[in-house]
Amino acid sequence: MPKSETILLTGITGTAGSRLGAQMLRSGHKILALMRDPTTDSARRRIDRVLAISDADTFADSVEILRGDVCQPELGIDSDDCRLHEIGRIIHCAACVEFIETTD
């Protein structure tokens, strides 16, 4: 990866995404984290928690929150968001890990 690339990362608070995100931050990249939290504040708290666990909390300023949802058309992102033009790479680590059987 080129140095100082902006990366759109899904699943940053998950097991794989948090470790990958921490490594990318240590390598000098900026992360645009796709988060579906109801508020930016709740998303920031979750990101700060996983960065602390990954011993990467000193890089918190290099993570911006992009509100959206991988289950929505166009990721639920406002296509006019100027930050989208900064993205050099997209890494998808989001997953559904609920194994509850349904009777549909």
Walk me through the structure.
There is one protein chain. This protein is α/β, with parallel strands linked by helices and 104 residues long. It has helices spanning 15-26, 40-53; strands spanning 6-10, 30-35, 63-67, 87-92. A four-stranded parallel beta sheet has the order 3-2-1-4, with helices on one face. It is globular, with a radius of gyration of 14 Å. It starts with 5 loop residues before the first strand and ends in a 12-residue tail after the last strand. The model has no long low-confidence stretch (mean pLDDT 91).
Taking Cα atoms only, what radius of gyration do you get, to the nearest Å? Answer: 14 Å
Major β-sheet strand ordering: 3-2-1-4
DSSP helix fraction = 25-40%
| Strand fraction | 15-25%
Question: If helices are DSSP runs of H or I spanning 4 or more residues, what is the number of helices?
Answer: 2
Count of distinct strands: 4
Task: State the secondary-structure class.
Answer: alpha/beta
Spatial shape? globular
Helices and strands, in order, run as EHEHEE
Largest sheet: number of strands, sense, barrel closure: 4 strands, parallel
Unreliable stretches (pLDDT < 50, length at least 5) are: none
Distance between the termini: 44 Å
Mean pLDDT across the residues is: 91
